[in-house]
């Protein structure tokens, strides 16, 4: 059964956006251990079947002292707002707030990037209850978090520990059905089932839509799953903010003295003024003809080699249909995320470094593009045999 996405409920997160809470994660930057294999999940069992479907067995234990509960604001009459410029402006601003911040249930399972589709098999009663609850919503979505490894922290062996990422993706439930395909236990869009067996497994398909960052308390709900308030991230707005940060009035002075003073107060500021422009320039390399690739672009060459190394027939063609066309050159962050979703597909192809966590936690477009460029180049060299990665 395919679940179609509809417009989200309006005004349900207005009061939430008026509040603030300390983030229940350490602000310390985490070092990511990049590997070609799937990450080991803390307190989870994630195993692959012959059909490349994963089974999720448990929830992560995310604890917090408080959580900002979702509250409904007073409704605003649409007809009146259309006649009143003030109410019309208020409605527009509240729409923007609701679109950027909301409360989401969280799953800690696998790092995903926008456009990716993950197929999982679930049997955990709480997770099944969560799925039934979410498909009853107008927009059946939840938050997906991956994990990062912090080397040398925790454990006597010094092997490090894993912690949930603070940045993840909103995923839409696009398919839910019994694992055996039988009518018994089929879940409808209203959340009802045709059976009551707790042992019945469900096949779930999740599509990653957009990135978010946790900006509120994280807590277990009475129903048993984890929720948090999140701030949705927009690539274009992030890049615009990068530019504006170093383009304030009087920030560009013609005198050497003012430039020197600026560089002393912030040595990285001069270089950062052009970081987005450099990101755009570097992102062009993904699709430009490359003489080292016999005139093919990096993307075309990678796809050519990946088809020769795909694990199942048609894997790459299916992947390309899911991802769609590569974003335009003037969208460097989206291009980097697209490349990450291409070379780290679900299920894994095993021919590239794992860069999805690093793409999510990077704060600048140029950083993301550089990570994606290095990874696709190394993947190409690995697949053509010129420089093996392992």
From TrEMBL:
UniProt keyword annotation of Signal present: yes
Every Lon N-terminal domain range: 104-248
Biased composition (Low complexity): 251-265
Keyword DNA damage included in the entry's annotation: no
Signal peptide: 1-24
Keywords noted in UniProt: Signal
Residue span of region Disordered: 177-199, 236-270
Highest taxon of source: Eukaryota
Name of the protein described by the UniProt record: Lon N-terminal domain-containing protein
């Amino acid at each position: 059964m395919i679940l179609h996405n509809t417009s989200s409920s309006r005004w349900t997160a207005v009061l939430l956006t008026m509040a603030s809470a300390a983030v229940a994660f350490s602000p310390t930057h985490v070092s990511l251990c990049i590997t070609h294999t799937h990450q080991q999940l803390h307190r989870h069992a994630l195993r692959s079947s012959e059909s490349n479907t994963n089974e999720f067995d448990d929830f992560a234990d995310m604890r917090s002292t408080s959580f900002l509960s979702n509250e409904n604001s007073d409704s605003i009459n649409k007809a009146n707002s259309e006649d009143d410029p003030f109410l019309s402006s208020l409605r527009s601003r509240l729409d923007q707030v609701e679109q950027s911040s909301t409360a989401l249930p969280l799953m800690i399972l696998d790092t995903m990037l926008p456009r990716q589709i993950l197929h999982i098999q679930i049997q955990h009663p709480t997770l099944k209850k969560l799925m039934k609850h979410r498909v009853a919503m107008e927009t059946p979505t939840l938050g997906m978090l991956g994990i990062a490894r912090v080397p040398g922290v925790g454990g006597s062996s010094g092997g490090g520990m894993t912690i949930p990422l603070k940045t993840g993706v909103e995923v839409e439930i696009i398919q839910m059905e019994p694992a055996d395909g039988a009518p018994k236990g089929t879940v409808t869009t209203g959340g009802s089932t045709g059976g009551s067996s707790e042992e019945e497994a469900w096949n779930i398909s999740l599509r990653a839509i957009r990135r978010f960052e946790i900006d509120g308390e994280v807590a277990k709900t009475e129903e048993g799953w984890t929720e948090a308030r999140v701030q949705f991230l927009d690539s274009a707005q992030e890049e615009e903010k990068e530019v504006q940060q170093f383009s304030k009035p009087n920030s560009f002075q013609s005198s050497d003295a003012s430039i020197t003073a600026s560089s002393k107060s912030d040595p990285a500021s001069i270089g950062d003024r052009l970081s987005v422009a450099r990101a755009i320039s570097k992102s062009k390399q993904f699709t430009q003809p490359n003489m080292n690739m016999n005139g093919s672009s990096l993307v075309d060459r990678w796809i050519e080699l990946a088809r020769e190394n795909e694990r199942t027939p048609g894997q790459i063609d299916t992947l390309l249909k899911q991802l769609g066309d590569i974003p335009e050159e003037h969208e460097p962050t989206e291009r980097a995320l697209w490349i990450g979703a291409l070379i780290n597909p679900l299920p894994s192809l095993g021919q590239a470094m794992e860069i999805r966590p690093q793409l999510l936690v990077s704060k600048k477009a140029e950083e993301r593009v550089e990570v994606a460029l290095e990874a696709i180049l190394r993947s190409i060299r690995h697949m053509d045999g010129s420089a093996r990665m392992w």
